[in-house]
Amino acid sequence: MEKIDKVVEFQSAPELRKKLYEHSIIKNFSAGDIILNENANIRAIPIVASGSVRVMRTDEEGKEILLYYIKAGESCIMSFLGGLHHETSKVKAIVEEDAEILFLPMDKVRLFIKEYPEWLDYIFRLYHKRFEELLEVVNAVAFKKVDERLLNSLKRKSEILQSRTLTITHEQLAIELGTARAVVSRLLKQMEDEGIVKLGRNKIGLV
Q1: Do residues 121 and 26 both lie within one domain?
Q2: Which end of the chain has fewer CB atoms within 10 angstroms, the N or the C?
Q3: Which whole-number Å values give the CA distances from 37 to 42, 58, 82, 88, 202, in the listed order?
Q4: 11 pLDDT exceeds 70?
Q5: Helix ranges, the chain (H)
Q6: Cα(37)–Cα(137) distance, integer angstroms
Q7: Please, what's the b/e burial string for 63-91 (b: 16 or more CB within 10 A of its CB; e: otherwise)?
Q8: What local confidence, expressed as pLDDT, does residue 27 receive?
Q9: In percent, how much of the chain has pLDDT > 70?
């Protein structure tokens, strides 16, 4: 029960916390593991108990872009919507840092919506948060320069991982930003020259 208390703060709904624990399958993942692929059937929704997950979208040409992160206590609203409407996944979810994740079957997701107002409120709050984050992505791609997006991405990762030193390749950053690796490498070198970051082998430190 202690773990489920860390997952979602349903202080006024102890029965719901208990049901989540009873009906979910709990799995542990390492950083880099894929927990959901695009076009996969959605049979359960993930709820992150610890660690974090990044959610990516791929276009027709195979280019990927980062949409948002799922932190402890949160779930993927795209999984909610896809599962509820019997649609396949439109996104890919990759473990950012080692994570423990609860997978709640879709039949229980639907049942809890009917039986627990707190569960429905949880879904709506997640939807609102993800909608705002997606608007930020659209705004960044449309109006911000790549260097600003790159620095914001590094700061966001630092916040998620609670570390000023990030273990990440230039290629991965390029994929998440939807740009070329050479562009990311050039911009990072400029940032290092300006004293903003310190570069190492597959590591980037925020100064």
Answers
A1: yes
A2: N
A3: 10, 10, 13, 9, 25
A4: no
A5: 2-7, 14-23, 77-84, 106-115, 117-143, 146-161, 170-177, 181-193
A6: 21
A7: ebbbbbbbebbbbbbbbbbbbeeeeebbb
A8: 95
A9: 94
Residues 152, 136, single domain; the answer is no
181 touches 174 (CB < 8 A): yes
Q: Which domain holds residue 49?
A: 2-141
Judged against a pLDDT cut of 90, whether residue 54 lies above it is answered with: yes
- pLDDT tens readout for residues 82-92: 998 999 999 99
Residue 81 CB partners (closer than 8 Å, separation 6+): 87
Dihedral, 124, 55, 191, 201 alpha carbons, nearest 10:
140
The residue from 98, 119, 141 where one domain ends is 141
Question: Rounded to two decimals, what is the model's pTM?
Answer: 0.79
Question: For 7-21, 79-93, 114-128, 139-153, which range has the lowest pLDDT when averaged over its residues?
Answer: 7-21
Domains: count for the chain: 2
Are 54 and 69 members of one domain?
yes
Distance CA 113, CA 120 (A): 5
Whether 30 and 125 share a structural domain: yes
The amino acid sitting at 87 is E
